[in-house]
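#struct-help
A.M.: can someone run this one for me? Single chain, 90 residues.
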Amino acid sequence: MFDVIKGFFETLYGNFNGFLQNALDIDGKLIGLYEQFISPLPELIKIVGAVFVGIILVLGTLSFVKKMLKLFIVLAVILAIVLLITQLNK
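D.P.: on it. Structure tokens below:
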């Protein structure tokens, strides 16, 4: 019984994945963009671009971590206040 249900969902996923691969063709479009715009550039420009993208990724990650740390601190303060209020009411 479980094999039939498993097979149904695997077939459903396979059909949907195949439809998306044929309809969107993301891999082909990205390779086409690379061949059209990136490949003809000189190597020096590619290196500078890679360094720039790396810097952007590092700074974006740091910014994300800072925001998550601030969120964690705010949530910890709210939790501490709630715990304090509930302990004082006992």
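A.M.: thanks! Residues 43-88 form the longest helix (46 residues).
D.P.: also worth noting: The chain has three helices and no strands.
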